[in-house]
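Entry 0007
Protein: Reverse transcriptase zinc-binding domain-containing protein
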Amino acid sequence: MKKWGFAGPDKCYLCDQLAESRDHIFSTCVFYITTHKQLFGQFTSFLPRSWEDNLLWATRKFGVKKPCALVGRLIWQSHISHILRERYRRAFGENGKTTETLVSRVQSEVRVMVQDPVLLEKYWAAAS
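Output (structure tokens):
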């Protein structure tokens, strides 16, 4: 993150364990892994080892033109966005949200975007 010009401690704002980097935040951070597993259920046999792995996984898993793949892409994009927002929130001294709160916000955001309850229920059923 320092390469991107972010100042701050060497430890990750989300897990407070390892040095913060793009690869850490989107692959090995405990906060990220927990929310990833909660959002992607059956898809969690693969956990990315780097940002590039994460991007490749999402492209392969959700790159097809099927309705459930669209929902998966929206969830993945919202998840990344919420992880970054949570990181910034903590970096600027605000109280951190729990993994459950972040997952709930991602799910709510995707529900608003999709507005097709049948499609959403199929996705959540497949992911659990």
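Curator remark: Residues 2-127 form one domain. The helical segments are 22-28, 30-40, 51-62, 67-91, 99-114, 117-127.
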